[in-house]
Amino acid sequence: xxxxxxxxxxxxxxxxxxxxxxxxxxxxxxxxxxxxxxxxxxxxxxxxxxxxxxxxxxxxxxxxxxxxxxxxxxxxxxxxxxxxxxxxxxxxxxxxxxxxx
Length: 101
Prior knowledge:
Elements (H helix, E strand, L loop, with lengths): L5 H13 L4 H8 L3 H7 L15 H5 L2 H12 L12 H12 L3
Helix pairs in contact: 1-2, 2-3
């Protein structure tokens, strides 16, 4: 993928999502490669949840809807599952221990 400036990336995104132009038209209008314009046209989604993914079906309730949601979110996702005690709890304990009257 060719290296393009942030200004051009913003313009690609504006033309794609605000003006609704095709990748081919965007590439032609900005004088960049077709594949570069297409790569920047894809959006990312960040989802955070305290409920483990394997319990989402029960939380959602409807198996068909649960399958549809999980298929779109988890299929090509990078998953990071954190382990251990909450940082909020740890900070509360440190604050309470450091307080003296």
